[in-house]
Amino acid sequence: MVKKLLVSTLILGGVVLAPITASAWEAGETDPNEAGGQTIKGQESGNVAVNGWIGAWDSSNPESPDPTDPEDPTVIDVTIPTTVLYANSVDDAGKPTSTIISPTYKLTNNSTSNDVKVSVEKFSSKNAIDVKQDLSVVATGEAAVALQTKAGQMLNARTKLVTVPKTSTKNFEFTGNIDQSAFPTGDTDAALRPTYDMSLHFTAVK
Predict the structure, then answer these.
(1) From CA 109, how far away is CA 90, in angstroms rounded?
(2) 72-89: per-residue pLDDT in tens?
(3) Are 98 and 178 in contact (CB under 8 A)?
(4) pLDDT (tens digit, 9 = 90+) per residue, 117-174?
């Protein structure tokens, strides 16, 4: 029988276009002012201009990040899980192994007018159970978002998880591994059950 070890809780530079059509960019999204790039043929090298922006953001300047959400948040209409679970895997003999497994969960965008970008805002512990683990959440086809490291660091900066198109659903699950020292020592010892809050942020986008 698979021994569940862990449970978690979810609570909820480029070519610049003409100023008339240019718009500020948003972290994690495609640069709206990138004009297709450059094609290198028959050469062994190529250069890419990198332009930084240090200081207050200015949405009127195409080289600045956009300081505001691009769409009215009142159009956001999403369905998310209330509680999500994960656990360690076990080997053929039923002994706990370090690999993290979880069910698959859904993020559903009910809006008929806007896509929605889902980001993880913060991941925090709710009880005093200390588990050394590299825990990530990953949406299908997207890069994993690290929630906790074995060093004890918790995510505390908004990080994009996935963009869900209007009237669509994206799946996500948990991955990672647990330090063997975290496992209960005896076969009859009760499983550890740490709990967490994973705060999500939603941005309506066209």
Answers:
(1) 35
(2) 788 899 999 999 999 999
(3) yes
(4) 999 999 999 988 889 999 999 999 999 999 999 999 999 999 999 999 999 999 999 9
Topology of domain 7-12+70-205, CATH: Jelly Rolls (2.60.120)
**Residues constituting the chain:** 206
Q: How far apart are CA 122 and CA 30, in angstroms?
A: 24
- Separation of alpha carbons 186 and 189, rounded Å: 5
Distance CA 139, CA 145 (A): 9
pTM: 0.69
Interior CA angle at 143 toward 146 and 24, to 5°?
100
For tokens 């963009």, name the residue.
163
C-beta of residue 137 within 8 angstroms of C-beta of residue 120: yes
Distance (Å, rounded) from C-alpha 47 to C-alpha 13? 10
